[in-house]
Design goal:
The protein is an alpha+beta fold. The chain has 3 domains: about 180 residues, Jelly Rolls, CATH 2.60.120.10; about 50 residues; about 55 residues, Homeodomain-like (Arc Repressor Mutant, subunit A, Orthogonal Bundle). The protein contains 11 helices and 10 strands.
């Protein structure tokens, strides 16, 4: 387990990584009460939150964004299995700092996370949702950055602000959907998470919308409508974003050609792949390979 702690203004940034060859368990306790948002990247670790005689378990954490309040009586336990690395970013601040935060972050915490600002227990769970492609891209960039010294601190400062902006923006959108439509039932929400995982696991040969609907047990209309409401993008826009993000990672970190990267994520046409890549990242795939 590697754990970096970075202080930026009145925020504490905790960056945790682990790639275990066999199952390992690691626990973390905060020294003072904190309000935090945790972003889980690749992998799928188990998380247990223990406080007093109570315990909350999360068996699926990949792409999860979890907000919470916790004091020094709360223990966070990660169980990391082989082939399922932990990548987690926690952005935290003490409640006493809320009025001092720049850029109106304190107001956003108070308005959108009021249950955390006024906690009723040692641990209080706030809104939880699965990250949009935009949030996932920022998280991936944090773990893949190679800056050092002052450049690294400047990069982290910008990315943490961007993560919080995306988080509060998505939270506002979800609140609007909940207010206007009565929200998405828990059972349907789980099926939408399943749809997201199916798409992510089958980038090269994804199911059709009809087949995806059949696999998760929702009709196509509800799948399209509620997927966009929950994740912020339509089904196949999400698929395209995942494909291009995966291709970018392949080009940057592995010795593959542009054609091979395109094939790996399901693009038969190199020109279609290149055009989509430029639209998402603002530069051509060949520029990653330089």
């Amino acid at each position: 387990m590697t754990r970096d702690i970075i202080d930026i203004n009145d925020f504490t940034i905790l960056v945790e990584t682990s790639a275990a060859e066999e199952t390992s368990v690691d626990s973390c306790v905060f020294e003072e009460p904190l309000i935090a948002v945790a972003f889980y990247g690749s992998g799928n670790v188990n998380l247990s939150v223990r406080y007093g005689e109570k315990q909350k378990d999360f068996s699926y954490t990949k792409s999860m964004a979890l907000s919470f309040y916790a004091d020094d009586q709360v223990e966070f336990i990660h169980t990391v299995s082989a082939q399922k690395p932990l990548r987690c970013i926690v952005i935290a601040t003490a409640p006493r700092n809320l009025q001092q935060l720049p850029h109106h972050e304190g107001e956003l915490f108070s308005q959108l996370l009021s249950q955390l600002v006024n906690p009723a227990d040692h641990y209080v769970e706030g809104p939880l949702f699965y990250m949009t492609p935009e949030i996932q891209t920022v998280v991936d960039q944090v773990f893949e950055n190679q800056y050092q010294g002052k450049a690294k601190m400047m990069f982290f400062r910008s990315q943490m602000t961007l993560l919080l902006a995306h988080f509060f923006g998505q939270l506002s959108s979800l609140n609007e959907v909940t207010s206007s439509s009565g929200g998405i039932k828990n059972e349907e929400r789980e099926r939408l998470y399943q749809a997201k995982e199916i798409l992510t696991a089958n980038l090269e040969n994804p199911p059709s919308l009809t087949e995806l609907s059949r696999q998760i047990g929702l009709n196509s209309f509800k799948l399209k409508k509620d997927f966009k409401a929950l994740f912020g993008v339509p089904v196949f826009k999400y698929l395209q974003n995942e494909r291009l993000t995966r291709a970018h990672t392949l080009l940057r970190n592995q010795d593959v050609s542009i054609q091979e990267a395109a094939w790996h994520v399901g693009y038969d046409s190199l020109s279609s792949f290149s055009n989509a890549f430029v639209q998402k990242f603002g530069f051509r795939p060949s520029e990653v390979k330089r």
